[in-house]
Amino acid sequence: MNEVRPQLDELLFSSVEGVSVESVKVTGTIVRVEARTTAMRAACPGCGCWSGRIHGSYLRIPRDLPAAGKFVVVSLRVRRFVCAEDSCPRKTFAEQVAGLTRRFGRRTERLRSALVSVGLALAGRAGARMTDVFGSPVSRNTLLRLITSLPDPPIATPRVVGVDEYAQRKGRIYGTVLVDVETRRPIDLLPDREADTLAAWLAERPGIEIVCRDRAPFYAEGATRGAPQALQVADRWHLWHNLGEAAEKCVYRHRGCLRPVPAPPDEPQEQEEAEPTASSPWPTGHRFAERTRAKHATIHALLTAGHSKRSAARQLGMTLNTILRFSRATTPEELFTGQWQSRATKLDAYKPYLDQRWQEGCTNAWKLWEEIKEQGYPDGYGNVRNYVSRSLRGKPQPVGPRPPSARAVTRW
Predict the structure, then answer these.
(1) In degrees rounded to 5, what are phi and psi of residue 351?
(2) Which of 47, 84, 109, 128 could be bridged to 140 by S-S, CB 3.0 to 4.6 A?
């Protein structure tokens, strides 16, 4: 043990003055180093006066960096001195070893610096896993506390400062963030977004030449009062955002102009396709229309096969009056007359406009409802949705290349 003591003394405390290693004990996975301070006097942290009068001593046991995979614990005996200055509020004070200990510290400065470096590089959880690897395990909260205890780095007065808001609680509590635009680093956080707070912050920094802000009136007032010498400009993000919104609204209003006019179809084909639609108030594919057509075909098939009307009613589970009504109709379309589809509705006056907009390429039922609502349509969205899904979905749209969307043009 005596042979390795000078080597450990030189290895562990070669850069620390005023410390003498007395013994080194290795027990299992722990290396215990017993040391004591050798300085003759110390400076009072309260008044700065030097004192050599010893009041007593006690043990401090800070942890050090691991060695050869073993935990290193330093049993350091430090002294408490009596302050010789009568006006000093401190009567006694404990000596601190520069580069080794600090007040209330449970780790040596070397271990503390290593943990701070890990925390700055990897933050909480990942840093805690890394400390387990090199043999100095700490929790993620410990790493975060070490980082927050570091003093703020000195920041020079920026020449171009960016001002914007941030949400502490969205919709309720907002603050102000200030960024050095040239270095792209945040400088400070203000607790609110009031003009007085910003003006006071800018007034303390007369070297600011340009204030890059959004278009909020309170930021404009604060920048004018706090930095009258600075040039105020709009930041790049808000310029692009406002330009994009204006472009999207403009393109959406004139999107119909981008669609080419389709070539008119042949007249005979159009008449042939229009005849079955004009004869039936229900379009093909409507569930009530299809059900009525199926019943009509079944009843007429039974009657043609020689069954009586009463027999058809028994087989199909229908009343005799229903069988009579279906038997009198030569086509299913005759049964549709007088149904609820032929009744006048509040949407009838707007159906020509809806058909026109459908042909222009607007297939969004919600957008169509908003447009006719501005024209005075009193009902809700459901009726427009039903009309679009039942009556307009089957109608062909103009033939031709689909124009680019408003957002696509905005991105261009």
Answers:
(1) -65, -40
(2) 128
Sort residue 401 into left (φ over 0), alpha (ψ -120 to 50) or beta: beta
Torsion of CA 117, 119, 125, 126, to 10 degrees: -30
> Domain extents for the chain?
1-101, 107-152, 160-234, 282-338
Cα–Cα distance between 93 and 45 in angstroms, integer?
Answer: 8
Q: pLDDT per position in the chain (412 positions), as tens? A: 444 444 555 555 666 777 888 888 888 888 888 888 888 888 888 888 888 888 888 888 888 888 877 888 888 888 899 988 888 888 888 888 888 888 888 888 888 999 999 999 988 889 999 988 888 888 999 999 999 888 877 778 889 999 999 998 888 899 999 999 988 889 889 999 899 999 999 999 888 999 998 888 899 999 999 999 999 998 888 888 888 888 888 888 887 776 655 555 554 444 444 344 444 555 555 667 788 888 899 999 999 999 999 999 999 989 999 999 899 988 887 776 555 455 678 888 898 898 888 887 788 888 899 899 989 999 888 888 888 887 776 665 555 566 677 778 788 8
Enumerate residues 6+ apart whose C-beta is below 8 A from 293: 332
Task: Give φ, ψ of 80 to 5 degrees.
Answer: -110, 125
The CATH class that applies to domain 160-234 reads: alpha beta
pTM: 0.44
